[in-house]
Each structure stands twice: as C-alpha cells, then as structure tokens.
Amino acid sequence: MNSASTGFVTIAALPTVCAGALPELVRSFIETYPGIRVQFSDVIAERVREAVLKREVDFGIGTLHACDADLRATPLFQDRLVVFAPSGHPLSLKHTITLREASTYGLILPRRESSVREAVEAIAHRERLLLDIRYETNFMPTALAFVRANLGIAILPETAAGAETSAFLRIPLNNRFSNRRIELLQRRDATLSPAAESLVRHLLHKFYVRKHDGHGAGSDSRTKRLKPSSRNAINPFESMNCTHASGRCYSRVRCTKMHVPEAV
Q: How far is the C-alpha of 221 from the C-alpha of 253, rounded, in Å?
C-alpha cells in the first residue's frame, strides 16, 4: 500500500478551529484515506507553537508570533474578534464598539497565553488604554458562561459561541487590528511524513475552497475571510519554493515550478 495512504498524524490547533471546521475536514480526509489515523489536540496559541517547535505534533493550526523564526506559516483564514454581551445589555443598540468603550463595562478575557488576549492587549497598547479586566478564564465556554450570568462582557473570536446565537449579543470591535490571522504552522527544518503531507494538502485545498465558496472557517458564516487580492490571501497551490522531489512544498517563497492542487 502507498505510504501516503497509511500512517498516524498529530495536529495541535486552537480550540475555535477544533470546534469549527477542523472535524469536518478531518472526516472528509479519513474517508479518502481510511488507513491514516489523525489525532488533534485543542490548545491555546502558545501551546500550538510550542508543540510544533518541540516536534510533539506534525504541524499546528494557530497564530504566528513575531519571534517564531523557526516556524513556517501558511495563511488559512482570518478570525474576527467581537464583544459578547448578554441579551438586553446597554450595548444592544451598538453596531460596532471600540475597545475603550467596551472596557468601561468590565472585561472577561482569556489568560495571557491566549492569542485572543495577545490581540486585545496589542490594541490596548496602541490606544494607550489601561484595560479593566474583571475576570480571566482558561476556556472560552467559561467566559461565555460568565457573560450569560451578567458578570461582564467578553472579547472572543466571533465563532466562539458556535451555533448558540440567541443567548448573546455579538458586537464587532471597531479596530482594524481586531482580526487574528489563523495559519498552518510547521517547523522550517522539518520534513513531513507522507501521511502528514497528504493531510496538509487536503486542509490547504479545503480551506481555500471554503474561503472562495463564501464559507467561514468556523461555524459562523460571518467570520471575516481573507480577500483574494490581499498579500496574505495567497493561493497555497501557486508555484512555491520546491525542495521535494514530489514537488510538494509549502514555503511562501516562489520558484519556477508550478504545483497543481490535488482535489482530495
């Protein structure tokens, strides 16, 4: 049997990705490759990067930190941060909200290891704003439970509540930095196994199709997607810097070879 059709692949991914599109995409993959077993862990952004760097997983899906020089990243989609407030909250008439306005109501935020917290604190730093953080949580469902109990308002990815739309108000942050870029992360010096390589190509293809078919990466179709004209919205199947005899490489450096996407 072809080595790309059997094997074991491990992934570390953000909780919102694991609760969104990833299970469906993994299911479609194992239907095509039933001999490949896939295991994924839902962990915070820092832990995704750490797991990839320590070779604990084959690759990760998360956010790239500026100091992660040993990681190679391929953009997948953008996830918009919004304010979650309980129904009937005074913010119910707002269509957008600034972080300064939101902070006056007492914030519920993930802990500092989270990419969401990093994004919120980066906005606060640019606006020279001291945040009024009322509660910190390890998990997004906990933050949403606190919101439901009217203990404050939370800033989380738009997809955090999944299909539970009626219990919360979702108010977009009025800031151009309020989007997280979610990327596929690999070690620069690592070579994927044939099974992991097959899964990477499958995910890149499916995420690319979802973006251009108008589907979000999570369960909420309103999640902002990368524009095709953006530098960040590269087609992962355009010609790339090829170092593999098979012509499969995921570097963002262009070369003269053209790689054709596999519809898997």
A: 31
* CA pair distance 107, 130, nearest whole angstrom: 12
Instruction: Specify the pLDDT at position 143.
Output: 94
CA angle at 53 for the pair 52 and 54, rounded to the nearest 5°: 90
Looking at residue 156, its pLDDT comes to: 94
CA–CA distances in Å: residue 36 to residues 9, 185, 195, 249:
7, 20, 7, 21
Mean pLDDT of 8-29: 92
Residue 176 tokens read as 């151009």
Rg of the chain over Cα atoms, rounded to whole angstroms, equals 19
What pLDDT is recorded for position 1? Answer: 54
Q: Average pLDDT in the 166-185 region?
A: 88
How far is the CA of 242 from the CAs of 146, 196, 238, 245, 256, in angstroms?
49, 17, 11, 8, 9
Residue-averaged pLDDT of the chain: 80
- Rounded to 10 deg, the angle between the 22-32 and 194-212 helix axes is 130
Q: Rounded to whole angstroms, what are the CA distances from 30 to 11, 23, 24, 214?
A: 14, 11, 10, 24
Structure tokens belonging to residue 221: 């179709």
What letters, b where the CB count within 10 A reaches 16 and e where it falls short, cover 98-128? Answer: bbeebbebebbbbeeebbbbbbbbebbeeee
Nearest of 144, 154, 96, 100 to residue 123 by alpha carbon: 100
With CA atoms as reference, report the closest residue to 161 among 48, 85, 97: 85
Going by the DSSP 8-state scheme, the letter that residue 173 receives in this structure is B
pTM here? 0.73
- CA 80 from centroid of its chain's CA atoms: 10
The predicted model gives 75-94 an average pLDDT of 91
